Structures
1.
Amino acid sequence: MSYSEDLAERVRDLLHENEGLTEKQMFGGLAFMLNGNMACGVVGQELMVRVGPDNYDDALSERYTRPMDYTGRPLKGMVYVEEDAIAADLDGWVSRGVEFAGNLPPK
């Protein structure tokens, strides 16, 4: 699966000041890693965000989100965010992923 280069570039612009930032091909798209922990990524035209188990239900209660189910089974703590939500608040969604990944020990 391909991913939106435009969206990936917009995410890079938001993350460029974070130390320990790397990119990795994952889940058929591009993942943004902080100190080896996935924070967010781009799959197709959507954003995938690692919100963590404690924030999972709250994230899913928001419009234009759904469980990340890359393998056919939802990954608790990971959500897909559709284009309409990205347009309204890309920075907020990316920040959620950064906050969660930033609280994990480096790999």
Note: Residues 83-102 form the longest helix (20 residues).
2.
Amino acid sequence: MDITVVDVPERGRFEIRDGDRVVGLASYHVDGGAMTLPHTEIDPAMGGQGLGTRLVRDVLSAARERHLHVLPYCSFIRKYLHDHPEELDLVAEGDRATFGLETARS
């Protein structure tokens, strides 16, 4: 597999690709200093290969590089943040309770 994650801003999403084939996406919207993350999906035929984790890791990395806080409305992204508390600083402290992340520790 030749897996890459590509930002496609004109479509408001990051795509994870296997070669030229889009096998998943994470939609986003940037407003001011925040990146809203409402939805993530992976082709069910490609499930169980860690592609969702790779996609979320790269999306959060892009948010960090752009100095944006994230609003993780997507449940998969919230679970990733709960499981990777070292990334929790990307969610503003005042927003953590809204997303059920107040007990996660960074």
Note: The mean pLDDT is 95.
3.
Amino acid sequence: MTKDEAHYPPVDPVSVGLRGRCPRCGDGALFNGLLNVKPKCGVCGLDNSFADAGDGPAVFVIMIIGFIVVGLALWLEVNYSPALWVHLIMWIPLSTVLTLVLLRVLKGLMIALQYRNNASEGQIDRG
């Protein structure tokens, strides 16, 4: 990643990441659609080629949503013993919606933290 020479006041990476905003200026949108990262910020022109959230957000989403949905499903089964179709109608849509929302939020947060901490791919110093 090249050194950022623009002079912008620092923004809170958690705030801009959770809102899906540019990690440099805090105003431009970070995403094109649901999960696609824009090539560059429409406001400040930041090149988003450095942004590589990888599998990090997906792992957190699986753990968080799995804990919530499995816990609620077990509670419902133990207390009310509903039919299988009730579980399917409740937990599949809930899991889908929560996953899409949380994945976007955590991906924005990871990208904002990458920018803030100048994170880049590891390199071996051969010098």
Note: Residues 19 and 105 are 7 Å apart (CA to CA).
4.
Amino acid sequence: MKLHLDNNGSTNIVTGYGADHVMINKVRHDGNLLLTATGIVSGWAPGGYAGLTADDFAAARDLGMEIVLIGTGSRQRFPSPALLRPLIEARIGFEVMDLAAACRTYNILVGEGRAVAAALLFDALA
């Protein structure tokens, strides 16, 4: 069965991903970022997973979404609850998953018209 995403052209969707990048509407983006249906914040969480701060999640909170999908690279890793406090206090739902699952889940939720952000982290390259 072939599936085709119906995109009106103004919605950001993930069209591909790899260990060091994500394709959004067929345009490559390198580095950690925040993604919403209408915007891309490059340079998010410059310290990578190991350098995450509460301020990184405050930036995600400030997007005004109802849910934030946190993609933690090639494997699922759970940030400390202290780091997630900005989301918790704002009563914003969040899910932690690996990068690939976050990209797929983001596409499903944005396709449903949900107010969702993807906070995408890439593994540090050696």
Note: The mean pLDDT is 93.
